[in-house]
Design goal:
Structural class: mainly alpha
Mean pLDDT: 83
Low-confidence stretches: 285-295
Distance between the termini: 45 Å
Strand content: under 5%
Length: 295
């Protein structure tokens, strides 16, 4: 594992985690009428705290893109999942809430899960699959599931909606990470012309904007602990599926390795949920407060 990729991925996770907290602090006061509407972004763009959060998220995405250009998606994605640790650090500083057993258990499971998956799987790059059907099947399943979850979330915005939107956004971001790696490879091989003539870079932009609307709508309607764990758990799963499915990433497939890889992924998901449900995560404004407060 490259030390550079490790540092870039962890730096990206730090920026993303801090950025998510700032974004949720601002979005929690946005009017409920903006739910799942691009108008929400137009309202939030006038809030300095939200702009700061977006700036950190963009910095995290840039660092993540560089990491993806130099490493495998199956390696970078689990490291990006540690953004929840940094979100908890900032939230804990704001709330003065101690970690307690739940926080420490979540940290150990997340860190142990990432370590187990990387050590057992030993992700390595390979030749991307040339079968377009395989590529579009994986992307189509992820996008179709995200659309289905968003449809149900629209009907239950204040109950299960934030969790569903978090999963949907995580699926989109996982596919976006895969297309970011492809875009980086096209740029390395053929420069700006090759990048501009490929559909992948436009897919990155479209998925980024759509995911941003979903995430901010989730942040608007519920505490961060409702949506961020779902997003953080879904993104690496979708990214790894794309990496192994059509980007040529290779993982060890003997029985022992597969067992530890599965345990590692399970540890990541459980750790993310425990950290996300920690009392230190900001709760945001109540629905009644959001009815009264305009951005």
């Amino acid at each position: 594992m490259s030390v550079l990729v490790l540092l870039l991925a962890v730096g990206a996770a730090c920026c993303l985690g801090f950025g998510f907290v700032l974004q949720q602090n601002a979005a929690s006061h946005a009017p409920l009428g903006d739910f799942l509407s691009p108008r929400l972004l137009l309202d939030l763009v006038r809030v300095p705290r939200w702009l700061g959060g977006i700036g950190l998220m963009v910095a995290g995405m840039v660092l993540g893109a560089i990491a993806l250009a130099n490493g495998e998606v199956s390696l970078v994605e689990p490291l990006l999942a540690t953004n929840l640790v940094f979100a908890l650090v900032l939230s804990r500083r704001q709330t003065r809430q101690p970690l307690g057993r739940q926080g420490w258990a979540g940290l150990l499971l997340l860190a142990g899960g990432v370590t187990a998956f990387i050590v057992a799987g030993q992700p390595q790059g390979g030749d991307a699959r040339t079968d377009p059907f395989r590529q579009w099947l994986i992307i189509g399943v992820a996008l179709g599931l995200a659309l289905l979850l968003t449809t149900y979330a629209k009907r239950s915005r204040l109950s299960a909606g934030p969790v569903l939107l978090g999963v949907a956004a995580g699926l989109l971001y996982g596919v976006q990470d895969a297309l970011t790696r492809v875009s980086g490879q096209r740029f390395s091989d053929g420069g700006w012309i090759a990048l501009a003539t490929g559909w992948q870079v436009y897919g990155v932009v479209a998925l980024g904007i759509t995911g941003l609307v979903l995430v901010q709508s989730a942040f608007e309607t519920a505490p961060l602990r409702m949506s961020l764990p779902a997003l953080t758990a879904a993104q690496p799963l979708a990214g790894i599926a794309c990496g192994v499915g059509f980007l040529g990433d290779r993982l060890r497939t003997d029985a022992g390795a597969l067992t530890w890889e599965a345990l590692g992924l399970a540890g990541i998901v459980v750790g993310v949920v425990l950290l996300g449900m920690h009392p230190a995560m900001p709760s945001g404004a109540t629905p009644k407060e959001r009815m009264r407060v305009r951005v």
